[in-house]
Specification:
With 214 residues, the chain is of the alpha+beta class. It is 20% helix and 26% strand. 25% of the residues are buried.
Length: 214
């Protein structure tokens, strides 16, 4: 008589799902929690290794066993949060957490109210519609000079926008402003969760605690 393996299959599948969830579940650090705030300069990779000639996080941050919570593109600047806490990292990056991230974007031209409303309501990109965003015009912020400076066209004004997202797609701000025909010339991440880039010069970092605010 052949053994009945049919009844075992659902149990085996359940065990495999539980094992998979356990392996993928973010973990608390074994040692003290570390949180690093870093002002990433332009043209720096958001990783500790790269190809020959690349500038990486290892050129600035000597702290071991911390990893970026999300990415910041090579041609973007500003706040990067690094941590050894997998649960905090997931909270800052996973879409379901809707953790806010505020960017300062210098765009070409002067977007109309209707165009900004489109960003606020959500626009449809190649990978689907974006969530509603908070978008406001702002005065030029007192930020550091970028090296090299942006390429500006004479007789074409630029506008600074403060854009707060609760999702994190690849190059999302740049794609959103391009969608309304106002390309982003410079992009700085100003805030992530409770932390900002205030008082950090490009290339500087400091360690904070979870409830220390700035």
């Amino acid at each position: 008589m052949k053994p009945n393996t049919t009844s075992r299959q659902p149990q085996r599948a359940n065990n495999e799902r539980r094992a998979s969830r356990k392996l993928n579940k973010p973990k608390r650090p074994r040692g003290p929690q570390k949180i690093i705030l870093f002002n990433k300069p332009f043209n720096v990779l958001t990783q500790f290794t790269g190809e020959e000639g690349d500038t990486t996080l290892a050129d600035f941050i000597p702290v071991k066993d911390v990893y970026p919570a999300g990415r910041l593109d090579k041609d973007s600047e500003g706040l990067l949060v690094l941590t050894n806490d997998g649960i905090l990292q997931a909270k800052l990056t996973q879409p379901q957490s809707k953790s806010p991230k505020t960017y300062w974007a210098q765009v070409e031209g002067e977007p109309s109210d209707e165009q900004l409303d489109a960003l606020r309501n959500g626009v449809t990109l190649k990978d689907g519609p974006t969530l509603p965003a908070e978008v406001e015009r702002m005065a030029e912020p007192p930020v550091w000079d970028r090296e090299p400076p942006i390429r500006e066209r004479k007789n074409v004004p630029t506008t600074w926008l403060a854009i707060t997202l609760r999702e994190g797609r690849n190059r999302q701000v740049r794609r959103m402003t391009a969608h309304i025909n106002h390309p982003t010339l410079r992009l700085i991440r100003y805030q992530m969760a409770q932390w900002t880039v205030d008082d950090l010069a490009p290339g500087e970092w400091r360690e904070v605690t979870l409830h220390s605010g700035q």
